[in-house]
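Open question from group meeting: does this chain pack into something compact, or does most of it stay loose? Before anyone orders reagents, we agreed to write out a predicted structure and look at it together. Recording both the input and the output here so the notebook holds the full record.
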Amino acid sequence: MTFRSRLQCSRRALLTAAAALPLAAATADAARPLADDARRYFPRHGSYGHRTLAYDLRLDYDPEEGTLDGHARIRAVANEHTDRVELDFARLKVHSAQIDGEPVAFHRKDGKLLLTTGRPLAAGRPFVLDIGYGGSPGPVRTPFGSIGWDLTGDEHDGTLVASQPLGAPSWFPCNDRPDDKAAYTFAVTVPDGRHALANGTLQHREELDDGSVRWTYHHPGPMATYLAAIYTGRFAHAHGDGSPVPVRNAYPARIAKDARHDLARQPEMLKAFTGLFGPYPFESYGAVVVDAELAAPVENQTLSVFGRNHIDGQRGAETLVAHEIAHQWYGNSVSLEDWQHIWLNEGFATYAEWLWSEHIGEDDADTIARQSWRDLSRRKQNLRIADPGRRHLFDDRVYVRGACTLHALRLALGDGVFFSLLRTWHAANKGGNVTTEAFLRHAERTTGRAVGTLLHPWLFEKSLPDLPAREADV
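Structure tokens returned:
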């Protein structure tokens, strides 16, 4: 099977699910003006009253009862003078709330946890929230299906988190905006014999007197809320060799052989993408294969998640492995200011699939781009990928046309200038948040060329532009 045919197969599996990601079986430093806020796809999520510095989450999970006992310590800074703090939080019950160690009044309304301060917070003042909560976690309902905390395993004794774009409040109180990024610490306690995995690096594994085990991870981030994740269950573990950073993988023992084979080229991908995109932005990478069938993998920061259906022992989903790794640069490190700019995530990660094909000597990006263009040309021309609208957020045309946009830019600039642009785009915005307009400004500034004229039809018009001719065709 050629890379092109494997790409078509895996992309159908990824995108027919609209990337909503339920189980298939079951920095802005100040408040944003109202005019901008009105453009947000999910204006009810997130608050501009504060910015978050760090989340410290202590979570005790009982798989027999399916209950979670949680404590969130949140360090933040007020963006404005206010007597209230607003967090996104769903399903679970709050039993205590403090600001700077003092108990405060709180109430719930429409998916929000609202805390009333004992005395007003001045703009620029740091503060610490402590929220105690618990209950039976589960996914939250969104326009894209049920997303967030979910169960795995035939006996539902494992868990996963796949939160893009609105599922983070299903398991911890947070400021659920893609541009509010923070550091994270996770201390997850599960019964002995089960494992807990989370973003970042394992700091401690502590056996407790009651027979449970506490797994503590830290990730300095910065990381958006929708990319935070924990996984619990029984896993076999492996480490990748020859990678620029440590690679850790986990999967059910019964599919260990196939999973090792299918994920074996992660170190090579990391090296190849480091050469193309610049240094890997985080301290580690890895993948978790959960004991469930997922509609699509998810690029949770430093620790992507795949379903057992993505493992076949023949690397049939390797395009998706490349896709999720590329997101660590574009989507996780360089993040969106808001969701209308999603082509900057998905177009870049899709183009990375085509670059991986070139790297391993299969179909080159130009061959894939031209076939993809033909496929797009036969479809309805009713989408502007730079602002597709909430309903089309995960439309596959955003992914594929976004990749074609980058290929058109590559053809116009040549490889040297184009890949320099990709590297400087990441280097200039590492850890930050971006917009389409910022990409256009960066492209023109760094290349010295009026690339906006080329890119505008691809990004802002509905009709599909022609791909530039290849040099050999000129």
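Observations to bring back to the group:
The first strand starts at residue 50 and ends at 62.
The first helix runs from residue 3 to 15.
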